[in-house]
Amino acid sequence: MRASVKCAPVLVLASLLLLVSGGAVERRVPPFFDDILKQCKVLDQDSLDSCLHHMLNSIRSYLPDGIPEWNIPVLEPLAIRGISLNQGGGNTRIRATFKDLRVSGLSNYTITYVKSDPAKYKFTLGLQFPKLHITGVYDIFGNLLLIPIKGHGPFWADFLEVAADSYNWLIVEHPVGDAGPGRLHLNHTQTDFDIGKVQLRLDELFNNDEFLGETVNTFLNENAHDIIREVKPQFAQEIDKLVKSVFAEAIASLPVGLWEGLVRQKEKQRAVDAEAKGAASASKKRASAKGKQHQAAGADKQAKQR
Length: 306
What we know:
InterPro entries: Haemolymph_juvenile_hormone-bd (IPR010562), To_sf (IPR038606). The chain has about 300 residues and is of the alpha+beta class. It contains six helices and six strands; from the N terminus they run H-H-H-E-E-E-E-E-E-H-H-H. The radius of gyration is 31 Å and the shape is flat.
């Protein structure tokens, strides 16, 4: 009995060590895209869109911690080195830099649509984010009417109801020495986005002067959409990098033959449609000519009767 009591702490410690070591080694590994593809049955463009939607949605829950096997970075939070702002003119002008940014909420996306164009090796992706929370450090100087502004400190911003459209172009890569069909490569991404509402706050303005600090923060929030318009291209570039890093491996896993098969199917359908359109046009011309012949014959008959 005493031996079991003495052993109990050792067993508890061993169990804790086992749990800790097991938690460090074992982690959720996303399914290989080959396994995901088995759930897709791609027959046409619509089913390709559905397959892309399924693939890109299936990895979402793994993104907060990143997927090192696929070179996908940690998304919660995503680190951005910095962006700059040069806003306004005259009596109101603000210049600012925002550094060491940490963006949270990027993995909590909803795919609103996927629209592919196999013939152009292109697909468009719609994404929605309920809330993106950003923290970092700011440096600001300028003028707000007659008030000179200068400050340095922490800041936060919330982007609410973010809707993004990501336009993506693919190419087929052929590795050196590989005689196979090649692999799809996400070559270029361009993103546009809109933000429903913006809230932000700069702390420690004017050496923590509450009145002046609130005045500047009120002005920034009232003009938040103008500020976002200024920094939007810089944020769009970061989203482009994110889309490429997150979705490149998923796209590369699609068989080139599948995509090219849809291209041939589209070209064949286009040829069939063109042939049908030509036949319909010829039939319409024949009917028109026949109608004119009937009209001419009727006119001749009437002339003879006179």
